[in-house]
Amino acid sequence: MRLLHTSDWQIGKVFRFADDDILPVLQQERLEAIGRIGRLARAQGADCVVVAGDIYDHLRPSERTLRQPVERMRQFPDLRWHLIPGNHDFNERDGLWDRLVRTGLPDHIVPHLAHAPVPLDEGGTAWLLPAGLGHRHVIGDPTAWMEGAATPEGAIRVGLAHGSVRSFGEDAPGHNLLAIDRARQAGLSYLALGDWHGAVKIDARTWYSGTPEVDGFDVGGAGGGQALLVTLDGPRAEPVVELHVVGRFRWERAQAVLTCADDIAALEGRLRALDPDDPSRVLVWLAVSGALGLPDLEGWQARIVDGLGSALRLLRIDGAPGLAASSDDLEAFGPGGAVRAAAETLARQAGEGDDAARAIAAAALQRLYLLARDGAGGVA
Amino acid sequence: MILRGLEVEQVRRFGDAVRLTGLGPGINLLGAPNEFGKSTLLAALRAVFLLAHGSKAGPVAALQPYGGRGAPRIAVDFTLDGCDWRLEKRFMQRAFARLEGGSERLDGDAAEARLHDLLGVEAGRRGTEAMGLLNALWVTQGHSLVQPDFSDPARATIRSCLEADLDAMTGGDAAGRVLSRVDADLAVLVDKRDNPRGRFRAAKEGEQEAAAELARLDGRRQALEDDLSAMADLRRRLAHEDDADRREKERADLAEAGRVRDRLRDYDARYRTARAVRDHAAAQLVAVRQDLAARAAWESDLAIGVARIAELDAALGAAQAAQDAAAAAHAGRLEAVQVADAARRAAREALDRAAGRVERARLTHERREAAAALDRLEQAAQAVTRARAELDACAIDDARMGTIRKAERALDAARAAGRAQATTLDVALADGARGRLMLDGQALEDGRIVVTDNAVLRIEGIGTITIAPASHGRDALRAELVRAEEGLRRALEAAGCVDVAGAEAALAVRRRTELVFQAAQTVLGGLLAAAGQVPATATEAARQRLADLDVRIARIGEAEADGAAGDPLELLDAAREAMQVAEDAYEAAHRALLAPDGTMRRAADELARLRAEAQVARDGVAQLARDLEAARAVEADDALSARLAASLDAAGMAEQALLRIEETRPDGTEALADAAILRLERTIQDGHARLAALRQEMAAREARIRAAEGDGLDERIAAQERLRAAHAAEDAACEREVAILKCLRDAVAAAERAATERYLAPLARAVQPALSALFPRAVATVEPDFSISALSRRIDEPFATLSDGTREQIAVLARLGLADLMRARGRPAMLVLDDALTYADSGRLDRMFDILTEASGRMQILILTCRTELFTGLGARRLAVEPVGGQDRSAG
């Protein structure tokens, strides 16, 4: 049998760094990903889609947010959608899943709220062992029950769970911690996991699908934006897993040290090359350092901040190139007079004191440069 | 620049051409009265240098002669940079301009352009004055008090003057533009008080609003979580309440409690029965014992009763004897009383008799007294009657006596009158002549004789002498005398008297009789006084009393017919003593009679008591005997003993039976069992109610939860957090922008200030010497607009607060400084002061003269004043206005 493994849709996610223009686009694209998953499953002849938790980002989404993914799935009545609660949308009593059930789900959308095997097909050749979360943090392994879960002899056992297979230090104690060899211990043909946002293969039978639409600059694994097409030829057969891209946006982190105009040009080229066809599919978080002269700072502003900032879907910049005002730069303010004196004062301030004060002084000098140039055409 | 001559024609008051003469280097003074035209000359000076000849605008039109149209013509001769120039302009009709100097001769606009070039001014707009520093230096009347207000070209001129001194002085304007741009940008973000505005303010407010909304949403989420937690709790409680096993157990417990109570009730019934049986047997036993005891008591009482009767009988005998003795004593005492009573009656009679005798004696004495009184009354009445009769017999009384005396006095008067008219004869008889002299027959004696009527004197031996007195009215006197004599006679007759002496005697008798009458009346009145009666009534009353006394005496006399002899009073006292003795005896006997009464009564009471007691004892004994007999008849003593034995057996058996039942007593009490049942029933009942309440509360909570979840709380919170972060970022960006702009502004402003201070220094230096001369140790604060804003002596004094004089002096010094500055830079400089320094005191004025004198070595100064006397100490050139062409119109 064939199934499509996905997880961590996190519908309704709010991106704090995004402005009012970008946020709806990012949110909308997460919904669009469902359609792409459905179409992929249909195209690949998958019987069903298993969603390994975190369908929603919030435990209490708005009614519209609650219904939107359902409506997307409704468009694929030929597929059965198996859903389990994750840590973001855990099955709280009187909570999200009760609401969802109350909305009247169509038959092909199946939330699995209990830890009990259910047949995946009418013939009962494949069984799903769902291990959704009942709390945000579950003490103990939510998949432990799978070992003792009885399924008909010879049936394909597919585990569906949400959690981490290892602890990430002391800050994240063993909540929702899954046994890394659960598939082997519980005799699973395949264990479909959710939680990690990048697609990761744990072992031959254990995979994280990752989120279908990347939602952050720091995602593990392959980085997300994919769904897994899993082919199970029998209970003993090793599953065949194919990664398919279903995401639209590309999220990149970049760093640059700028000291001259060439550096600026190189950075621009590098970022534009991320998606030369459609830079609007790219979100970049740029960490920049270095120092530039006054004309180069103007170039930085024009080519990177304003230019690339408009081309890319999002350009988030940490830091700014410092000011390295040369004597030549100061000459641009003329040989003397109050403006030149002010520029010298600011240049001096930009080189001393705390970082914040220096940055302000540098920015002021840059501004003075622009103003003096604009205001008195002869300067510079 | 040195002005050497000025001609005007057709300018305001100057119709014909006049020329200002006497101009030269140094100080030039035109002193002239008001209305002379000094200001007109200054206006002409400004016009020829600064107004375009072709203009017909207001300033030019204002130059035209008063009351008429004309073409003002002004010519001026001046030396500039060592070259002599003549400038002439006519305005309005046939306007022209001509500038001649050195080898140049220029007309019209070329002349104007050259002039501007020479003066360093710029053409003004549409008919206004050309603009430059000269405007500021040529002060018109009334403007000397204010500091020069520079036009842009003037400022540029000053600045160029100043900057020529500083090689690097460029960018001043650029700094100003930057500053204004920065200020404009800053004004978008913060207001004048540095409060955020625009998007900066919106960001701050947005952040606050978002934070508030977030707090509200967090509150709602907390409420939702509380609801969810409460809901979970409610479910647990519901499951607990709804637990079938628990409810079954509750029902079983209730049934068991019912059974426990039934057992307790059964036991209680049996116990009660056994206890009743035991109580009955015990009661039977008690009854038998009571019967036995009663019978023994009866027998005992019977014996006691018989003994008692015997005792009583003995006592009764003694009591009877005592009573008899008491009765005998009483009879004796009664007899004694009777004897004493008889004696007392006899004594009473004797006493009565003695008293009767004493009364009779008293009445007899009283009768005597009464008889005497009657006698006295009668005699007094008779005396009164007698005296009244004698009084009535007296004819004379005081009235009649008065009449008699009056008649006598009338007669005497008549007689005296007659004698007064009579002839008097004084007779002196010689010895032996006695009797020899005879008048009317009577011998005369020595002495005076009155002859009232014709008389015949006979003298013995001599003859007779008839005397006829020559009396006037002798007849009337005689008639009067007769009437008097008749009156007296009638009065006497009425009194029954013959003469006056008799009348006097009769009156004395009457007086005595009246005294007797009054005495008798007094006696009678004394007797009657007490009674207030008339004599007759009093007499009658006295007689009646006498009769009464006689009757009473007669009565006593009858009673005392056998009266004993002796003194009645003594007898009476004896009778009284006998009476007292008899009374005492009687009292004693009577007391004796009463005294023994207690003893007798006690004896009677005792007897009665004993009799009653004996009767009761006898009745009791009889009753006891009857009861005992009856009881024995019903139940013989043997039968009673048998019944006692049977009752003892029955009581023992009943007690045993009760003990056996008590041993079967179940645990607990019925009350406890009831309480347990009540509790269990209530538990079951409350369970239903709790279940209903839980379901109700759950429904309410669920509704709230659904409402909150439908709102998408978490999503809204995330959105709000994003909004807050966005506002915070915007706020930070604005903060940064403001910081950048302020940093820039501060830097540029500081630089500009430093530059300004640098290039203002020459101006300050130029002003300072004169300033120091006028205000020792004072320093002027020069502003970037070249005005002097304050004077620092000991403290800063803002210009506006200085006195008029000081302000005017500073304004003049500022102009002097500017002129110096221009002159030093090779620019045309010349100072005109119109009516200036009028506020200066003499000390200041002298110093100002010194300063002006000193400055006049470097530049020409023209002073126009109407107070020539003030400026006499200046040593100035005196100017005059003279008609051109020989007419003498000068002033001076």
TrEMBL record, chain A:
Keyword Nuclease on entry: yes
Q: Which UniProt keywords apply?
A: Exonuclease, Hydrolase, Nuclease
| Coiled coil location | none
| Residues annotated as domain Calcineurin-like phosphoesterase | 1-103
Q: Which SUPFAM superfamilies match?
A: Metallo-dependent phosphatases
- Listed CDD domains: MPP_Mre11_N
Any one Gene Ontology molecular-function term assigned to this protein's record: exonuclease activity
Q: Which domain of life is it from?
A: Bacteria
Q: Which PANTHER family match?
A: COMPONENT OF ATP-DEPENDENT DSDNA EXONUCLEASE (PTHR30337), NUCLEASE SBCCD SUBUNIT D (PTHR30337:SF0)
User: What name does this protein carry?
Assistant: DNA repair exonuclease
From TrEMBL, chain B:
- Whether Cytoplasm counts among this entry's keywords is no
Q: Does the keyword Coiled coil apply?
A: yes
Highest taxon, organism lineage: Bacteria
List the keywords (alphabetical): Coiled coil
Q: Which residues form a coiled coil?
A: 360-390, 572-627, 677-711
PANTHER family reported in the protein's UniProt record = DOUBLE-STRAND BREAK REPAIR RAD50 ATPASE, PUTATIVE-RELATED
| Protein's name according to its UniProt entry | Rad50/SbcC-type AAA domain-containing protein
Query: Could you tell me which species this protein originates from?
Result: Gluconacetobacter dulcium
